Amino acid sequence: MKSEFNPRPETMTRISLGTLLIFALIICNSLGHARQADGPKMVLVEKTYDAGDIKEKEVIEHSFKVLNIGDRDLVIKKVSPG
User: Fold this and answer.
1) Is residue 76 situated within a structural domain?
2) Three-state SS across the chain?
3) Domain count, the chain
4) CA of 53: how far to CAs of 20, 56, 58, 59, 62, in Å?
5) Does this model's pTM top 0.90?
6) What is the pLDDT of residues 10-42, one digit of tens each?
7) Looking at the predicted structure, is the pLDDT value of residue 74 above 70?
8) Is 77 a member of any domain?
């Protein structure tokens, strides 16, 4: 049984170009969100620190490395121990 489906070339071109246009818009929109400025973004390399057993009046020092992977300045106004 032979199929008699014979689409017109101009219809196929319109469908293909329309599909291509929609696909290109989706890709451009996705890339735009990836490059969008979102301000400062803080990342802690180490989120916790276990000082172990501490004797009374013993001084403990530890530094946490803070990275700013955002696109604006990161301002830390207050830090308090947990």
Assistant:
1) no
2) CCCCCCCCHHHHHHHHHHHHHHHHHHHHHHHHHHCCCCCCCEEECCCCCCCCCCCCCCCCCCCCCEEECCCCCCCCCCCCCC
3) 1
4) 64, 10, 10, 12, 15
5) no
6) 555 555 666 666 767 777 666 655 556 589 999
7) yes
8) no
Q: Indicate the pairing of strand 42-44 with strand 66-68.
A: antiparallel
**In a domain? residue 30:** yes
**Residues listed for the chain:** 82
Which structural domain, as residue segments, surrounds residue 50? 9-68
Q: Report the alpha-carbon distance of residue 55 to residue 61 in Å, rounded.
A: 14
Closest CA to 70 of 43, 49, 39: 39
Contacts of residues 17-24 at CB distance under 8 Å and 24 or more positions apart, as own/partner, are none
